[in-house]
Design brief:
Rossmann fold, binds ligand GMT, 13 strands, 6-stranded parallel beta sheet, 16% strand, alpha/beta, 383 residues
Length: 383
């Protein structure tokens, strides 16, 4: 800790849809608000985990004003966010804007800072803002500028910090602050009646949670499951939605596992399903962190994942699950079968996952690091 006071008024920019960066931004914003600071979310929609929050300490939410005009063939989200953020900074005396995801949030935050000439900007990089979208030539210069000019930059894994330096050739300091999980909410659910809603007692329950983008390789999930179910009774729950869902659906039919594969869509009660499950699959081709895997670990669920990106910083091979080479469906199926056939191994991996969630990735450990980074950013000091 620096001993520098933490700013009291913080604006937060994040994507509102079901995605890891919005989840982290919301959970952090809620905890910062509970610590007595004033937190102002600014966005075009209420972040999905903020919806329904009650209580005096809940954060404020400011809807970005949109304006459509016939001359414009595209909306200008960055300008609209910067404009609403400017109003919030001036009206509420915000000291710091925390931009989650470089595009368009860090850019919009810097724009509002230039207009108001007050407040600091801290940017947290989450993954695809660097590895996919930001690396696109169409956004390269603006993303690099946002990263270089933010007053402080954090990344959710060492892998992502390294990628950022590599992709953009930036030399500035990037502080690594891992994601965290609410270990009180993401717990084992030992209720046979609730489990019976999803699987028979003799069936293994396998789960995948994502936004079904190509990077998630959801077809690998179905292929791994098809091999598993050819050897033991099991069910697969696919949670989330996105462009690759129809392909996964089609593949499940082709492989003859449709009857055992359930697409639950954007199922709101993710923690209950994870809490009931026996195995979590994450075969992504790139994953800066893998928040869904951490949520599974918190529920004592062993993880089988591809060894990609920052996943090894979360899932310890042979300790909290197993890592396989990218795209190696057979290796992932072998690992899944090994876990499902050996209850003692499954229990040990699950317990180690829970331990990691309670120690390395607990909010009590991670949130003070953000508060400390806020204080240093406002004080203008580097880490
Ligand atoms: O995974 C996604 O496509 C969503 C994306 C997001 O920004 O919402 O997730 C990224 O941020 C999460 C929270 O920090 C990380 O846990 C995910 O690993 C990361 N996704 C990728 O790197 C693909």
């Amino acid at each position: 800790m620096t001993g520098t006071p933490t700013p009291q008024k913080i604006a937060v920019l994040c994507h509102a849809g079901a995605g890891g960066s919005g989840v982290v931004a919301t959970e952090l914003g809620l905890l910062v608000a509970q610590s007595g600071r004033e937190v102002h979310f600014v966005g075009s929609a209420v972040p999905f985990r903020l919806a329904g929050q009650r209580g005096a300490s809940r954060p404020f939410y400011h809807q970005v004003s949109a304006f459509a005009y016939a001359l414009f063939d595209q909306p200008f989200p960055e300008l609209a966010i910067a404009n609403t953020l400017t109003e919030v900074i001036l009206e509420h005396g915000v000291d710091l804007t925390h931009a989650h995801y470089a595009i368009p949030h860090a850019t919009a935050a810097l724009h509002a800072q230039a207009i108001t000439r007050r407040g600091r900007v801290m940017t947290t990089l989450h993954g695809t803002d660097v590895t996919l979208v930001g690396a696109e030539p169409a956004f390269r210069h603006t993303t690099r500028h946002a990263i270089e000019r933010s007053d402080h930059v954090t990344a959710v894994s060492h892998f992502l910090a390294e990628q950022t330096r590599e992709v953009f050739g930036v030399e500035r300091e990037i502080e690594v602050i891992h994601n965290f999980v609410d270990a009180d909410r993401f717990v084992r659910v030992a209720d046979p009646e609730v489990r019976a809603r999803f699987a028979d007692p003799d069936e293994a329950l396998i789960v995948h949670v994502s936004n079904f983008r190509p990077v998630k390789r959801v077809e690998d999930v179905v292929r791994v499951f098809a091999r598993v179910v050819s050897e033991l009774p099991a069910r697969l729950l696919m949670i989330g939605d996105g462009p690759e869902r129809p392909r996964a659906f089609e593949l499940a039919a082709q492989l003859g596992v449709s009857g055992r594969t359930h697409f639950l869509g954007s199922f709101p009660d993710v923690q209950t399903v994870l809490g009931l499950s026996d195995l979590f699959l994450l075969p992504s081709s790139n994953e800066s962190f893998g928040l869904a895997a951490l949520e599974a670990m918190s529920c004592e669920v062993p993880v089988v994942a591809a060894r990609a990106g920052g996943v090894p910083e979360v899932v310890e091979d042979g300790v909290t699950g197993f890592l396989a080479p990218l795209g190696d469906v057979d290796a992932m199926a072998d690992a899944a079968l090994r876990i499902l056939r050996d209850p003692a191994l499954a229990r040990a991996l699950g317990a180690a996952g829970r331990h990691a969630a309670l120690t390395r990735f607990h909010p009590d450990r991670i949130v003070p690091r953000y508060l400390d980074a806020y204080a240093r950013t406002v004080a203008g000091a580097s880490a």
